[in-house]
Give the backbone structure.
Amino acid sequence: MKKWMILLLSMVTITLSAQEAVPAAAEPAAAPQFGYLSYEAVLKSMPGYAQVQADMAQLRDKYEAEQKRVEDDFNKKYEEFLDGQSSYPKTILQKRQSELQEMLDKNIAFKKESQELLRKAESEAIEVLKTRISEAMTKVGTAHNLPFIINTDVNAVTWINMSMGEDVTEAVKALLNDAQQ
């Protein structure tokens, strides 16, 4: 009988301590332990982003127009070459062929160079915006007393316990928009 009493008393003690532990674990954290945001959403919401995209489209159009002009010049010369090739002496034929090859090589080089210049121009323009985002994230993180802010884009974070973190996307957007005005 004593054994049963000790066993019953032990079970009651375990049950009571387990009940006390559950509410403590279920209590929400007093403050977020980290911040998270969609970097892409912040970037695309910036007024400067639309301007960068418009500038890049305009620059891309200029390069494409120049490529089209050079291509048209090449096609015209090539057609002239085809029309007259049967009447050209061998040396003139070889000279024209080498001129066409040189034009083709220059056109290919220009196309590669223009693609690289476009990529570089866009990268430099976006880098200015990214610097502003970084500064805004620093201010928001400091103001909200967050140890770090996670970028949730491109599945960099597969799961977030929302009760432990704070979505600071809108706070960063607001700070950037206030700074713009």
